[in-house]
Amino acid sequence: MASVALSGKVAVVTGSGGGIGRAVAIAMAEAGASVVINDVGASLHGEGASGSPANETKALIEATGGRAAINTDSVAEWDGAQKIVQCALDNFSRIDIVVNNAGILRDSIFHKMDPNDWRAVIDVHLHGTFNVSRAAAEHFRRQESGAYVHMTSGSGLAGMVGQANYSAAKLGITALSKVIALDMGRYNVRSNCIAPIAWSRMTSSIPEDSPEKKALVEKLKRMTPDKNAPLAVYLASDAARHVNAQIFGVRLHEIYLMGQSRMLRSVHRSEGWTPESIAEHAMPALQGSFMSVQSSSQLIPWDPI
C-alpha cells in the first residue's frame, strides 16, 4: 500500500478554526505534518474576530502529540498572506503544503446583490486563494516541491441560486489551480481542487422553509467535515505526485472526479455564418448538447450511502 505519511512536512491550512479546515488540519497532523492553523475567528459572514476557534484546533492536535502554530491574519490581504506563510517558516522552518479553505458567505439573489457582498466573498475566496498560494510559490519553486489543495464547490462548478459571488469565486479557483499546475509543474509542484460536501457553518445557513429543504439538511448532517480530510491528506502526500490539475468531489463515502471544460460538439459552414443561418442550422445542431439549467444540488439525484 502506498505511503501517505506527511512526516517532516509543514502544512498551512486556512480557515482551520472549525469545520472542514479543522478536520483537514487534524488529519494532516495525524499523518505527521506540522500545521499552521490560520483562522481570523470571524463569523460565517466575516464579522468579528476571536482566536478561540484556532486555539481549539491547536489543542486537539497537540492532545495527540501533533505540532501546530496559530496565525490569525486575513487571507484577503496580500500582507496577511505573507505573514501566514512566514508563520510556517518561523515555527517549522519550511512549507510544503497549502490548503486554501478559508471562506465566507453573503448570499443574495443576483438582482439584489450588494456590490460590497460581491467584493467581500471574492476577496476571501478567490483573492485569498491567490494571495496564500503566491506567498508560498517562491518557496515551493526553490525547494522544487510543494502541493496545493484548493477548496472549490459544486456551487462554482454547476451554480447555485443566490450565490453569484460564491459561485464566481469558486469557479475562478479551479481556473487558478489549473494555471498553477501548468506554470509550476516543472518544479514538481502540484495543484488540485476538492469540491467538498459537508455539514458545517457554510451549510448550516440553509433555510429549512420547505419539506424539500428539511430533507436536504438531514442528508447534509450525515456528511461530517472529516469525510473530506482523507482526500486532502492524500493529495498533499508524495503518493499523489502523479496527480495534478484535477478536480475531485467528496460526498459522504463517495469520491468523484469532476469534468473540466472541453469542446462538446462543433458545426462548420464553408461560406461562414449569418445570424439567420445560425438560427436555422447551427443552434438546432448544437442544442442536443446544451448543458441543462440546473443547480449543483440537482445534479446528484441519488442519496448518499
Automatic annotation (TrEMBL):
Domain of life the protein comes from: Bacteria
TM region positions: none
Location of the Ketoreductase domain: 9-205
Gene3D superfamilies registered for this protein in UniProt: NAD(P)-binding Rossmann-like Domain
Entries under SUPFAM superfamilies matching the protein: NAD(P)-binding Rossmann-fold domains
InterPro entries for the chain: KR_dom, NAD(P)-bd_dom_sf, Peroxisomal_Beta-Oxidation, Sc_DH/Rdtase_CS, SDR_fam
Family named by the database record: Belongs to the short-chain dehydrogenases/reductases (SDR) family.
Protein name: SDR family oxidoreductase
